[in-house]
Each structure stands twice: as structure tokens, then as C-alpha cells.
Fold these 2 entries.
Entry 1:
Amino acid sequence: MTGTLADIAGSVYATFDGTGGGTLGLHPADKVCLFIVDGLGADLLAAHPSRAPFLSSALARVLTAGFPSSTPISLATISTGVQSGYHGMLGIQVAVPGENRLLNCLRWTTEGPPVDPASWQPLQTVFQRLAHLDVACSYVAPGAYDGAGLTRAVYRGVRYIPADTVDERVEGVHAALRATPKAYVTCYYGDLDMTGHMMGWGSREWLDQLSLVDGMAERIAAALPPGGVLYVTADHGMVNATEKIDLDLAPELTEGVALVGGEPRARHLYTHPGAADGVAQTWRSVLGDRALVATRPEAVGSGWFGPVNPALLDRIGDVVVVAAGGSVIASAEAEPQVWSMMGFHGSLTPAEQNVPFLEIRR
């Protein structure tokens, strides 16, 4: 059985309301933990089963992340149950319509006036819906994210439990599961993804992180209360860069472009009026088979973002560029930290799109 990250919210809700297991066919439960491991692609996990024996033995199915395959987009998809075209988290950096500026949806930073997270992503979360069933919803994650814009956009309705270390997160999950008769606890771990970005997935450091994640999942599962269930998934996978295309060395790629948004594997290009077709043609000519290049109508028509709310169309680039293979598109001068990275995600390749969905019951 397959599915998408958008199926998780409704399926988890169905485990509590008694209507059946939703699209994913989950079994009823009163104590549920969802462990989200940032960057744990299904293909990546399958490549190193010996470093994650517990997770590898529990693999139930593979889900599709959605586009762009990056953290803020996928976290919103998991919490709202809809794809990016409807929750509006359409990229790492997305244009604020009509204001000629970008909102960084990961760090929630922008030039000019602040953007209200509840207005940018106004959909009700599964946590808010579960409150009507008397389910206590908690989020266990590093304290630095408590109150952050992304947290306020996608985790409305949870009790935030700050937990910085692995031990604190495991203990926070156990305490939250036992605190009330019905509980849904989401736990987030981001260091595997960070290590993959800096050192590359498959590196020694990344493999050490994978082993740590495996042990963390096993510890959470071992202390599940009777009738409890642990689900483990990820927001996206990753590829290692094999070619970096420097926008600084190809000035023709920025002709007619007012703002370069998105991220290195999934670029949103916001063009000057009337320039979209010409920009798309230039990018196709320069990049060839190293990227898929589509105008906004073509990208929407291809279903990359799922069904799109017409009110959100202007957040999508006039031209959308999806990197192929191991290509990365960035500015070495304007994005030095990004340029120095080894691992990337955001595109439509299986290594980035395929994420595991594991189930451990007690």
C-alpha cells in the first residue's frame, strides 16, 4: 500500500474517532506517537539497513513527500492533511504577493513588515481537530523552535515540550503519552538532515546519526504504554550534489528575473511583467537535461503542488525550476552557506520524494 504525507493527518484522526484507519488503514489506538526524522529518505534507509536494524525491520510502506520536498512544506502537509498547493507553504523562500520580497518559511524571516504565520497558513491542523475528541496533542522538539514562525504556522493546537537532547526527547514522549487517557505526541529530530547537508548522506558522520536515530526509535517503542503505537516517518530524503550551477557565472539566467526564491533543488523565479516565457526558454536552453523548467501554469497543470487554491497562485514562481540528477542551482556569492553544502533536497527524484512509514505497536 502506498500513500503520501498528506494521508497521515486524516489517518491518525481516524484512529481516535473510531471510523476506521483512514487512507493508510491505521488501527485504532488511544496513545499515538509520530516520530519525524528530518531527512530520513526511504531509499537512504534501504541503502544502509545494518546501521538501522530496528527501523529496517519495522518498515511498513513508503510514502511520497510532495513538492517541494523540504521541511516546512512537509511539516505543513503532515499537520494539515493537504498538499502544498492548499496549505500555502510552497517553498523555502516564497514571494509575498505584490510586495517584491521573499518570506523564508523555514526561518520565518523577511525584509519589511513581519508575516503572520496564522494568516499565511490559516488551515486548521489535525491537532486542533483532535481537541474535539479530547485528545491531548504534544510536540516534543528543541526549545529553540518554541514560538517560532514555522511552529506557529503548522503546530497550532499542541502543547510544546522543549527537549534538546535525545534523552530529553525520549523522556518527553513517554511522559506525554502517559499523562492523559488519549494522547497524540509528535517528536521531531533534525540532526540527521543537518549532517547530510554538511557532510553528505552516506558519510561516516551521517551513518553515525542514522544509528543514533535507530536507537532513539527503539527506546521510544520500548516504553510505549499498553495499546500504544509508534509511527516513524520523514519529511523528505536527500541527494548529494554532483554539479553546482553558479548563478553568478550565468548572468543570462537572471535576466528578466525580479526575485529568485525556492531553494537549490526547486527554484521559484518571479519575473518582471511579461518576461516569464522568455525566462523559461532561457533556462531550458542553458540547463538542458539538468533541470525541468515550467511556467507557473505548466507546473500547476502538471500537479507538482497537488490541487492549488487559486488564492495562492501568486506565491508560486512565474517559472519553476526543478533540478534533475545531482544538480544544484545557487549563487555562490549570495548564498555562501548553501553553496558549501554537500547534501540537498527539494526536487522530484525518488531519493528525495520517498519517505518511510513505519509502525510499531504494543
Note: The domain at 243-344 is CATH 3.30.1360.180 (Gyrase A; domain 2).
Entry 2:
Amino acid sequence: MGSIGRYIFRTTFAAFLVILVSLTAVIWVTQSLHDIDLVTSQGQSILVFVFITGMIIPLLVLVIAPIALLIAIAHVLNKMSTDSEIIVMNAAGMSPWILFRAFLSVAVVVSIGVLVISAYFAPKGLRMLTDMLTEVSADVVTNLVQPGRFVSIESGVVMRIRERRSNGQLVGIFLDDQRDPAQRVTIIADTGELLDNANGTFLVLQQGMVQRFKAKQPDPTMVVFDRYAFDLSTLVHGQQAVKYSVRQRYLWQLLFPDPKDPSYLEQPNEFRAEMHDRLMAPIYPIAFAVIAFAYLGAPRTNRQSRTVSMLGAVGGVALLRLAGFVSTVFGATMPWMLSLQYIGLALAFGGGLFVIHRGLIIEPPAFLDKWLAALVERVTRRVATQ
């Protein structure tokens, strides 16, 4: 790679990193707000909140990286065209392939990163997210119930404690259970402790009273107890084995699934569709680079509009990714649909490389170009007068 190639590689890769980090941060913050209840209602620290929500970052990078690469290539090509660098290179006899190789090098680096993230880091992050959420919700009394607050630990179950001592003992317990429509159970106890054994998880209460309000009976039934065990097994999930979804499987688990895996036996078509989607994920950055350069890489004068070419590149990329998405979604039930993404990628590579090799300029019809230029001018004038 010559000095020009290194210049293009550095500029494009730096722009890619800036765009990738910016878009990932914005989308991560937006998605994190959905889980803010981990801090507000479940009593978790901000560090736990950041750690849990941070597990989706590899998946976000996997989705955003090809788009960030497209934006970076379009930005660099537009800048080089504005500065007349592409025209000078073309006038000096430089082949479009030489210019394209620098962008292709960036696309290959991005593809390798996407492959690694798709094969390991994205499913690993989703697994850690599932494990962490399971752990957070496993001990509902420890994580949810805070002294002095009425907290709904499940639909129909409200609990309040006055104090939690350093040894884990709960003091001043109020528990209201309305899950059974036939009766409502209210429990008041002086103290209580959590007990885990082979039979499940129980809240062992001491020195209290149970009130049962049965339907169609005006008066409750009250029982005073010295020791009473309230079953929490249906409210906790720590005893249950974590079952990972197809999206949470590593790439090699999709390529060589365990024939005895219950999930694979239940949904083999989903495994196959996900496998094809993972295998194609590293190809999309290269395909996006081909499409972007085919539309924007040809030399143009400053008087030639690049707006339509930019829209064409975005439209081509969107259409290609939509074909892949449709192929993955419907391929689980109709296996022949999986070929749609292969056909789309083949057309994108074939058409794009042909345009690059021949040095063709993809331009819209003259009437469309004039109409778009007039539209842009009217919009610009209107915005300037406001």
C-alpha cells in the first residue's frame, strides 16, 4: 500500500471509529433507559446497572459497524471529491482499483472484527446479561425489598420490612398475597429469615399472624403463629437452569450443534437460519464498501451533484440489508428463503465490481437531477428565511 493508500486507510478508519463509538454510545444510552428500574425499584447500584446494560454493547457494535463503515467511506469520498483529490488522481492515471483497495482494506479489518464479535463476543455478552439478570432476580427479598418501602415482588404479592439487620434477619415484616382469586392472605411477623434447601426457597417467619380473607365471606380467618414458612420458590429463579436462546449460541455451536440439545431438537430451523446470518455478517461490510465506492468513487466536478449518488448508495445498502433480514426471519419456516441473502450479496458484488472496473459513473436521468437540485434549493432558501 502506497502513501496515498495509507492516507485513505488512516482517514477512513479514524472516521469509522469516531462514528462507531458515537452511534454505539447514543443507542446504548437509549437502550439502557429501559432497564433503569434495576436502580430505582430493585435497589441495585449504578455499577451493576452499567455492567448489565453494557453487555449489549457487542451486539450493538455488530449491527452498527457496517453502517458506520458506509458513513465513513461516504464521508471520505465526499471530502476527496470536494477537494478535487479524486479528479487529480484520475488525471494522473491512477486506476479506480488502486483507490478502491485502500477502502477495501478498511472493510476487511471491519469484517474481521465483525466475525469475531458475531462468533463469540455478542453471544457471550447476551449470555452474561441473562446470567446477571437471573442472579439479580433470584433473591427477590434481598434485591427488591428495601426497608420502609412497600414493594411488589410479583404481580399480586406486596411486601414491606421495617429493618434488615447485619446478619440478614428481617424485622417488622408485612406480606400481602393476592395471587389466588379465591382468597387473600396477609401476614404480619416480628422477624423472618430466608431458608434455601432441597425443597425450595422459604421465608421463615416468627411471632406473627396470618389473616385469610376468603371470597364471599365477610370475616377473615386469623391464625397466630410462632413459626411460619412462606414459600418463595415460585417467585425466585435462581434454582432454575438458564436456557440460552439461539441468539446466545456461539458460532461453533450453530455450525456443529449437539444432536441431543433440547433446544436444537425443538427448533432446528432457527439454528440453521441463525447460522447463515452469522456466516454472512462479516460479508456485509465488504459489500457496503463496494456499493459505496461504486456510487461515489468516480471522479466528478464540483458542479456535478453527488446527492442522488449518496441516496443511491444508502438505498442500495438498505435494500441489501433488508433482503438479509427477510431471509433470516422467513428462512426459519421456509428454508429456500435463506438463499435470498446470498443472491443479494452476489448481485451487489457483481454489479458494484463491474462499475468500479469499468470506471462508470452512476448518474440519475437529467430530469431527476434537475428536479432534485431545484427541491434542495427551495428547501435551503426556505430554511434560510426562517
Note: The first helix runs from residue 3 to 32.
